[in-house]
Design brief:
Oligomer: single chain
Strand content: under 5%
Shape: elongated
Distance between the termini: 37 Å
Radius of gyration: 17 Å
Number of helices: 5
Helix content: over 70%
Length: 76
């Protein structure tokens, strides 16, 4: 049992645990909804323009934030 638990990558497990906690906090605080509403407002509800805006915002945010937390946040 000790050998098995010794081989577990605890750092990775706690990284993902913390990541999901942060993403839940951002969602609960309404940041994602606020951002989505502003994107739709800026694009006037045009579906094609909104999709392009999401792609560009995703590209820029992904360059600033590491990819794994970014994907976990934007997947919703």
């Amino acid at each position: 049992m000790h050998k098995t638990f010794g081989e577990v990558e605890w750092v990775t497990i706690f990284l993902f645990l913390g990541l999901f906690i942060v993403v839940y906090g951002i969602e609960t605080a309404g940041v994602l909804k606020w951002l989505a509403n502003h994107v739709v407002e800026l694009t006037g509800g045009n579906l094609a323009l909104t999709a392009q805006a999401i792609l560009w915002i995703s590209a820029i945010a992904s360059a600033i934030v590491d990819n794994i937390p970014f994907v976990a946040t934007m997947i919703r």
